[in-house]
């Protein structure tokens, strides 16, 4: 991390990391932003001054990790004298990022790719990174049956594309915590759940990740209601993503991130150990396999 000053203030700036403009439209947009800023001889702090955004936020946009808000795009154009370029292309970059994802989730897949660690809590449905296509199709069918089939398939493709992360050698360290009811109490057919549970076991074991289960005998515990995804980065502050049915938020205020971290650690304490959790998952998989055979 680099420390710089401005008007008597000290702040922490992520070290420079050149974005790969070929990865995606948001990465191209961010690389162009960095190029124009450096051509103008401006630091991140100088460019962001006068806006309502922080240095780390602007840095993440330059790396293609965050969506450029329209108000900041106008501010950047004015400061850099870029004749409305970033405002005109702001919506294009946002649309490219959103393909196959809900609008409020659009920033998260790129953050997962950049993260050093990902820690998730799933109280209601399985985490997207662990879902199979059949599980997601079934979940959409039960939760939002009016979604057109072509939209369903677009979501499935986007979800499975996120899971390519598991094949990377530089993938983030993963720790997941699930509520037991998420895998035991589902309307999906036993064959679908057999595939799903076996898929989770394969991912966790093959990547040396950690999974814990909060048993049904523990009804009260920290973070009871909403999902949470805590991500840390090599060159940016940690953040938390949380969502409900129609809303979501990215939390990066340090005090709030610290509180999520504290509660997540308490949740680990009430969950089964990693070994016991995988044993439970093995048992669930056997149960679903038996039920699937009986249904044949």
Question: What labels would you give this structure?
Answer:
6-stranded mixed beta sheet, Endonuclease, Chain A, 434 Repressor (Amino-terminal Domain), 2 domains, 296 residues, alpha/beta
Percent of residues in beta strands:
5-15%
Number of strands: 8
What sort of overall outline do the alpha carbons produce when their principal axes are compared? elongated
Residues in helices, as a percent range: 40-55%
Mean pLDDT: 84
- What about the largest sheet? 6 strands, mixed
Strand line-up of the largest beta sheet:
5-4-3-6-7-8
Derived structural class = alpha/beta
Measured on Cα atoms, how large is the radius of gyration?
21 Å
CATH topology of the largest domain: Endonuclease, Chain A
Low-confidence parts: 1-16
At CATH's second level, what is the architecture of the largest domain?
Answer: 2-Layer Sandwich
Tally of helical runs? 12
Number of domains: 2
Gap between N and C termini, in Å?
59 Å
The CATH class of the largest domain turns out to be Alpha Beta
Order of helices and strands: EEHHHHHHEHHEHHEEEEHH
What does the model show?
By secondary structure, this protein is α/β, with parallel strands linked by helices. It folds into 2 domains: 2-98, 434 Repressor (Amino-terminal Domain) (Orthogonal Bundle); 103-295, Endonuclease, Chain A (2-Layer Sandwich). It has 12 helices and 8 strands. The protein has helices at residues 25-39, 44-48, 55-62, 70-80, 85-98, 108-114, 133-143, 149-162, 180-184, 190-206, 254-270, 274-295; strands at residues 2-6, 9-13, 117-122, 173-179, 210-214, 228-232, 239-243, 248-251. It has a 6-stranded mixed sheet, with helices on both faces. It has a two-stranded antiparallel ribbon with strand order 1-2. Strand 1 and strand 2 form a beta hairpin. The protein is elongated. The termini are far apart. The model is unreliable at 1-16 (pLDDT under 50). This is Transcriptional regulator. It holds the Pfam family DUF5753.
């Amino acid at each position: 991390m680099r420390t710089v000053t401005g008007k008597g203030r000290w702040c922490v700036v992520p070290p420079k990391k050149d974005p790969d403009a070929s990865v995606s439209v948001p990465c191209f947009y961010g690389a162009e932003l960095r190029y124009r800023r450096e051509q103008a001889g401006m630091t991140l702090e100088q460019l962001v001054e006068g806006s309502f955004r922080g240095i780390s936020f602007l840095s993440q946009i330059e790396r293609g990790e965050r969506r450029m808000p329209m108000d900041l795009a106008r501010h950047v154009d004015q400061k850099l004298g870029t004749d409305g370029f970033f405002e005109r292309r702001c919506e294009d970059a946002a649309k490219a990022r959103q393909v196959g994802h809900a609008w409020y989730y659009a920033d998260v897949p790129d953050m997962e790719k950049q993260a050093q660690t990902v820690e998730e809590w799933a109280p209601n449905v399985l985490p997207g990174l662990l879902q199979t296509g059949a599980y997601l199709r079934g979940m959409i069918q039960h939760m939002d049956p009016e979604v057109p089939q072509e939209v369903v398939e677009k979501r499935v493709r986007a979800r499975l594309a996120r899971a390519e992360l598991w094949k990377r050698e530089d993938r983030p360290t993963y720790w997941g915590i699930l509520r037991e009811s998420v895998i035991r109490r589902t309307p999906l057919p036993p064959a679908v759940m057999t595939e799903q549970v076996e898929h989770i076991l394969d991912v966790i074991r093959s990547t040396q990740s950690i999974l814990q289960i909060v048993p049904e005998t523990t009804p009260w515990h920290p973070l009871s209601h909403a999902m949470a995804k805590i991500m840390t980065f090599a060159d940016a502050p940690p953040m938390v993503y949380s969502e409900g049915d129609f809303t979501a938020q990215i939390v990066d205020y340090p005090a709030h991130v610290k509180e999520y971290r504290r509660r997540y650690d308490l949740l680990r304490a009430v969950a089964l150990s990693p070994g016991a959790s995988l044993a439970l998952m093995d048992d669930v998989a056997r149960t679903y396999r038996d039920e699937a055979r009986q249904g044949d």
